[in-house]
Amino acid sequence: QVQLVESGGGLVQAGGSLRLSCTASRNILRINDMGWYRHTPGKQRELVARITSGGNTNYADSVKGRFTISRDNAKNTVYLQMNSLKPEDTAVYYCAAEYYGIYWGQGTQVTVSS
Questions:
Q1: Model confidence over 36-72: pLDDT tens digits?
Q2: Torsion of Cα atoms, 89 then 47 then 77 then 56, to 10°
Q3: Nearest 5°: phi and psi at 108?
Q4: In contact, 90 and 112? CB cutoff 8 Å
Q5: For residues 37 and 45, is the Cβ–Cβ distance under 8 A?
Q6: Phi-psi label, residue 29: left if phi above 0, alpha if psi -120 to 50, beta otherwise
Q7: Which of 82, 91, 70 has the alpha carbon at shortest distance from 19?
Q8: Strands 10-13 and 108-113
Q9: How far is CA 20 from CA 39, 101, 102, 109, in A?
Q10: 29 confidence band (pLDDT: 50, 70, 90)
């Protein structure tokens, strides 16, 4: 099993920045993929960014050039740096880890005001 604890959400004005953190309960070097998803009421949960154990990344088209996912293996933590935030980025953001199954964090609210 993997427990994931997210932090870093909040309220920010459009154009601002936030950094989300996701700390895992086990060594993330043993976790294949970790990623960030987001969910808005009335829409499906969507992938925002993903990073493999080898450090390869991919992003949703809507966030390319604005968001950066990274990992600190020593801290068992994955980050999502979000810059140039837009009101449409408002959502609950979830961390996910693929480790013999998919594990989810509890979610953190990000609200971007116009």
A1: 999 999 999 999 999 998 899 999 999 999 999 999 9
A2: -120
A3: -140, 135
A4: yes
A5: yes
A6: alpha
A7: 82
A8: parallel
A9: 15, 23, 19, 10
A10: confident
